[in-house]
Amino acid sequence: MSALNKQRRFEALRGALALVEERGVVPLVDLAEAVGLDERTLADVLHDALYVDYHAGSKGLVTETYAFFYDEDSQVVSLQQGHWLRDLAAIPPPPDDALRLLLAGMTMQAVATGPTPDLDTAVAKLRGVVACDLHMDVSVPPALPVVRRAIEQERSLRVRYLRESADTPVDYELLPHKVWSRWGHWYLTARVVGDDEVRQFRVDRMHDATVGDTPFTPPLEVELPEWFDLAAHERTVRVRMRADALESLLAPHRLGDATDLGDGRVELDITVIGDHRLDHLLVCLEPEDEVVAPAEYEKRRRARARELLGVYEDS
Questions:
Q1: CA-CA distance, 208 to 294, in Å (whole number)?
Q2: Model's pTM, two decimal places?
Q3: CATH 3.30.450 for domain 6-88
Q4: Are 55 and 61 in contact (CB under 8 A)?
Q5: If you placed Cys at 222, which of 65, 178, 184, 206 could pair as Cys (CB 3.0 to 4.6 Å)?
Q6: Which residues does residue 254 pair with via DSSP β-bridges, in sequence order?
Q7: Where are the domains of the chain?
């Protein structure tokens, strides 16, 4: 191999020592492979750097005994005692930040589908900072492994999906783009076969998930939503009801400004998300409550109430 210039020697040394810093003890052959040099060349680079004593900024003498040690007999490089430069660059985070990082790291360990050696090392270090025995159960939806398998095999995904506004599941064949987690839930970005619209599906609402037969190549770049715009699903009804009954309304909901009617009642707008919650709200109103607007919601209220009464009569 031709002589290395200063930049290449620095990059090789930095890469090799960073790997030793991370693992503690690393065979020379693994270091050489990691930095792209043959073993003899890397040994020469290490010898020139590690066997030079120097005075640190604190005037203390730094030798190979206090940093890294290259054992020529066993052909391994090991991490020795701490020294001023490495310690300065490895100040642990404050306890509160360390706990948050530890929780995040343990969560990623639980949901990872492959080896995570770097993450495992970081979690081990954070455990030392937190200094407590922490156990955490991370639950994942039953359909998640099947979703991942469909993406890996580049096949469609067949599911029975229970939408929020529905009482019964719907059968879908999806072309899966990417599975991801946010806000405590797992989501799948996908298209329904035959539809060009890209949608988001909650994995915990998927039932009887199986890998389908339709071949599909997921796009290389998938844009994930920063938030979900639910404005199109908002349903607002204006009602007259007792003021003291507002606290017992179906949650979640949003209340508009209330107008006092002077008889213990108020008139106001109530907004919920989706038709399912709208129906629930309407049938939970007291019989004396009035649906002011829109007019079709009063008809919907009566129709839904008749349906429920019919169910009870049939039973």
A1: 39
A2: 0.41
A3: no
A4: yes
A5: 178
A6: 271
A7: 6-88, 95-130, 144-215, 231-314
Instruction: Pull the structure tokens for residue 3.
Output: 């002589």
- β-bridge pairing 259-260 and 265-273: antiparallel
Task: Identify the DSSP state of 24.
Answer: S
What is the CATH code of the structural domain delimited by 231-314?
3.30.70
Class of domain 144-215: mainly beta
pLDDT over 80 at 258, yes or no = yes
How many CA atoms lie within 13 Å of 19's alpha carbon, on the beta-carbon side? Answer: 17
d(CA 16, CA 221): 33
Total residue length of the chain: 315
Taking the CA atoms of residue 29, residue 6, residue 80 and residue 64 in that order, the dihedral angle to the nearest 10 degrees is 120
List 79's β-bridge partners, or say none: 68
* All residues at 6 or more sequence positions from 57 whose CB lies less than 8 Å from its CB, including other chains: 84
Strands (E), the chain: 25-27, 54-55, 61-62, 68-71, 76-79, 155-161, 170-182, 185-192, 198-202, 206-215, 234-242, 254-255, 259-260, 265-273, 290-293
Burial zone of 179 (CB within 10 Å; 0-12 exposed, 13-18 middle, 19+ buried): buried
So what's the pLDDT on residue 234?
A: 83
Nearest in space to 29 (alpha carbons), one of 79, 80, 74: 74
Sheet arrangement for strand 185-192? 198-202, 185-192, 170-182, 155-161, 206-215
Rounded CA separation 37/16 (Å):
10
Tens digits of per-residue pLDDT, 11-53? 888 888 888 877 878 898 998 898 888 888 888 888 766 765 5
